[in-house]
Each structure stands twice: as structure tokens, then as C-alpha cells.
């Protein structure tokens, strides 16, 4: 194979060491930007023609050549080469080979420095739209599961100790709220991703009469960057995306952890669908919750990616530095992992079997109606602190005797407070406890139904 001269090779006498080519090339990673690179180049070429920097005939040849290259790539016929470092130069080299002189004009008034960040912005803009939809789908599945189990009561926990009964649907919808905020965060980040950097050149702008607003219109960017140095230097849009992704994974991994816990023998609240579990090669009885475990596990990678890019950016002098090439792996892997994990979480939900009786029995146990008894006394004029003390003493008795509050006779209860009457028993059921928590955002069925209506599933 004859070694072609580098596209930037004019000032070099010596050849690049083979080991350096391998070390500096990013084509195996950034090839995935080919569509965005071509879209950006087409818009750039059309602008160059409009500004009479190239002729319209040349621009047409460039556009046709680029579209042909896109087909070659999509049909697997394109030969990527590490000698050409990255996707930008692979495509440019091929364009020149295909159309000659006109191809050599494409890179006029442009640098790979503004080109690469344009590609990343186009790429992220597209992927963030897909992630936003995936978050919406997961929210819908959570809402549907909540609707299916509207009547189911479970123990609510604080400190992983049984605390107060709650509707299972209310618990599920807590996650829907988290994923809604995640969607808002992505949408907000998108405003800052969606800014055109092209035209910054290498760092200082260009002497040629370009029209950046025209390129922005062609590519659907509502804004253009206002400082060429900033445009090629910063990656805060990518950092923000990784931060938003990391928070998605905080939420996903908590949901995953609860699925693991609930499907354990100890909890026994749910059974995960067979299709989303695996067995053990040694222990015949095992059914392992690998999917939620892996979602939980992948969160570590995503947090690492955020840390990696923060560290990469910290202390970099302005403007472009080659270090910035290392932004791609973390961003690409975060995109893939967020999408795959959201998909898995969405898929697993409809197949989950809820063991209603087991949850209901758990909701009865654990003296979780102690607060309700205190509230009962408050409604009969006892100050909350004294009520808390009275109920504390009743709880101690229950613990000593291994009984529930509602298993004590009225006579026994009255010994602690004469304010307690027969109607206390209907007050102490989990159903009543849940029904009464009607404060805005509380677990009462009316509130939950209202939320489901707002989410469009009721
Ligand atoms: N592959 C490079 C990157 O990802 C493109 C920009 C290279 N610019 C340069 N002056 N070497 O950052």
C-alpha cells in the first residue's frame, strides 16, 4: 500500500511514526459521527456557495460526493483508515479522491476544531431526543403498573424499617416523578447543546466572508456561539449531558435495587418475569435478578464517565487541545448505556407479578399504625407530644406481648388513655391509614388517581 501524504502534511519532512498513528487515531471511536459530519459539511458547502467562496457547481459536486460517501459507509463499503486519524479526515480524503479539486475546497473557512464540536452537538441533540422519549416510555410503564395495582398496600420504609403503610402505586409513581425531572434536565441541557459552533475556525474566526446564521438555519440551530475561542474550547454541554445521565442512573439504580430487594425470598413482594432473569450453573433453585443488578452496576460506569470528562477539562488552557478527543468514549458509552438501561427497565415492568397478599400481610405487621393512633388522640384533643408518649407505651406493651395494637382490647387501650373509644379499630387498618393521608402529594388513593389522570393513564 502506498502511503498517502497527510492532509496536514505540507510542513512535515518526516513521516508520522506508525505507533503514533495508532496512538492518536480516533476513527474506531468517532466513525459513529459520520452522518453528523456529513450533514455539517453539506450545510457548510452550501453556505460557501451562497457567499461565493466556492461556485455553486463546486458546492453541488461536494454535496453529491458527500451523499455518495454516506451511502458507501452505510453499505459497509467505506474503508476507514487510521492514517487519516478521525472521521473528519477520512471523509475529506475520500471526497477529494472522488471529486478532486472541488473536494479540496470543502475545508475552506473551517477547522477540525469547530467541526468536531459541531458533530458532537448534532449527535447529542439527536440522541437526547431519543433519551427523552425513553424516559417518557418508562414513566408510562410505571404509571400503568401503578394503575394495575391501585388497591395494593405495602409497608412504606424509612431507614429500611417499616414506617407507615402506603399505596404500592404511590411508591411506583415516586419513580415516575424522578424520571420526569430527568426528562426536564435533558430538555434544559439541550438548550445549551443546541448552539452552532461552526465558523469559529481553529480558534479565532476566519478572514473569509462566511454567514454563520445561514449555516445555523440550515442545521436547525436556534443560536450561534458568540466567542470563537469558547466555541472550540468548551465541552460543558457534554459535561451537562453526562451529569444528567448520572442522575438518571441514580434513579435507575434505586429502582433496580428495590426490584432486587422485593424479589428476594426475605421480602417476597414481587416476582420478576422469567425472561428477564437467569439461573445459576450450580444451584438449581436459583432465579437471579440480573437485569436490575446490571442496571444498578452500570451506574458506576456512568458516574466514572462524568468524572473522566471533568478531570479531562480541568485546567486545560484555551483554546483547543488534543485532550478533547478523549471526550468521545465517555459520551458515546453514556448514550448507549442510558438508552439500553432505560429500555430494560421499561421492558421488565409489565411482567412483574405483585404478590398482593404478602404485601398486605407485611403492611399489617410492624406496628405501622402507631402514628395513626397518635393522630387519633390528637383528633380527640390530646397534644401530639403527649399522644406520642402514650402510643410509645402502648407499642412497648405490644412488643413485650408480641401483639399488634389493634389486637389489644378496648379495656387494655383505655388504661393508656381514656380518650380511646371503640371507633379506634376502624381507624387503625392500613386501608384507613392510607385513605386518610389526603394532604397534597400524600398517599391517599384520591391523590394517586389524580396523578394518574394527569399522566394520562386514567
Ligand atoms: N479528532 C479530533 C478530536 O476529536 C478532531 C480535532 C483535531 N484537531 C486538531 N487540531 N488536531 O478532537
Averaging pLDDT over every residue, what do you get?
A: 96
Q: Tell me roughly what share of residues is in helical segments.
A: 55-70%
Major pleated sheet: 2 strands, antiparallel
- The fraction of residues assigned to DSSP E strands is under 5%
Report how far apart the termini are.
66 Å
What's the CATH superfamily of the largest domain, by name?
Fumarase/aspartase (Central domain)
SSE-based structural type:
mainly alpha
Task: Determine the CATH topology of the largest domain.
Answer: Fumarase C, Chain A, domain 2
In short:
Helices cover 60% and strands 5% of the residues.
Give a verbal description of the structure.
- The chain folds into 3 domains: 18-108, Fumarase C, Chain B, domain 1 (Orthogonal Bundle); 113-360, Up-down Bundle (Fumarase C, Chain A, domain 2), CATH 1.20.200; 365-452, Ribonucleotide Reductase Protein R1, domain 1, CATH 1.10.40.30.
- Helices cover 60% and strands 5% of the residues.
- Strand 1 (153-158) and strand 2 form a beta hairpin.
- It has a two-stranded antiparallel sheet with strand order 1-2. Strands 3-4 form a two-stranded parallel ribbon.
- It contains 20 helices and 6 strands.
- With 458 residues, the protein is mainly alpha-helical.
- Helix 4 packs across helix 5 (87-99), helix 11 (236-262) runs antiparallel to helix 12 (290-313) and helix 15 (370-379) packs antiparallel against helix 16 (384-401).
- Bound molecules: arginine.
- Arginine binds next to helix 7.
